[in-house]
Amino acid sequence: MSSGPAITLGAVNVEADEPRALATFWAQLLGGAVGAENDGFAFVSAREPGGFAMFFQRRSDPRPDRQGQHLDLTVPWGAREAEVARAVALGATHRWDVLDEVPWVQWSTLSDPEGNLFCIAEHPPAT
Fold this sequence. Notes:
Blueprint: E1 11-16, H1 19-30, E2 34-38, E3 41-44, E4 53-58, E5 71-75, H2 80-90, E6 93-102, E7 105-111, E8 117-122
Parallel strand pairs: 1-4, 5-8
Antiparallel strand pairs: 2-3, 3-4, 6-7, 7-8
Pfam families: Glyoxalase_6
Protein name: VOC family protein
Organism: Blastococcus brunescens
């Protein structure tokens, strides 16, 4: 057990060509609300206490060729396909599925309306 402070994820920061539009997509997908907005910045609140918020700021440099990290979102077993369809209806693009690489998770990789990758994963119930 660590003797340091308990660290939690407060917010994910994303550079965007259109911060308000991308914040709206993520608020609809995750269930938060677009809150503070100011000249190239937008904030999406956490859906519930202990959840994470998202902060969007106008992109200052060209988009990198490769994305170094992405969000892995988890849904209950059996809900992945419906949530992927919902994300696509909101403006995401379905990229690929990984259904049999490992036995403890299946996931779909998508990109948001600006091309940022994210995954929607489901884990089988414990037996």
